[in-house]
């Protein structure tokens, strides 16, 4: 007896773009909408203009703290800057459910994982 394997999913519309390219294009579009220069965004983000220029060209990915500062300078959420069109749900029920899920998952972490998570979260002030 031979079982036919399932058909592969249809191909996506071209290969996925690298995150650095998406981030750079989104940052450039937001900067132009805000009528800011690259130097102004770099200054507000506390990075060198040349670093911001490389980011816009899709040549680098910033650290999380730098990503957050760029988001603040451009008036975008991290989701928007990374090409995700949605924001977090604002309803109290959704937030409460997310908080419970987070606490449940945190209780399952070992000491090293908990320490790593704490260090990661310290960058979001």
How much helix, percentage-wise, in residues?
Answer: 55-70%
- H/E order of the elements? HHHHHHH
Category by helix and strand content:
mainly alpha
Number of helices: 7
Would you summarize the structure shown here?
The protein has 125 residues and is mainly α.
Strand and helix layout:
Blueprint (H helix, E strand, L loop, with lengths): L18 H15 L4 H8 L3 H8 L7 H11 L3 H4 L10 H16 L3 H11 L4
Helix pairs in contact: 2-3, 2-4
Characterise this structure.
This protein has 125 residues and is mainly α. The protein has seven helices and no strands. It has helices spanning 19-33, 38-45, 49-56, 64-74, 78-81, 92-107, 111-121. Helix 2 packs across helix 3 (49-56). The chain is globular and about 45 Å long. Mean pLDDT is 82; it is low at 1-9.
What keyword list fits this structure?
mainly alpha, 7 helices, 0% strand
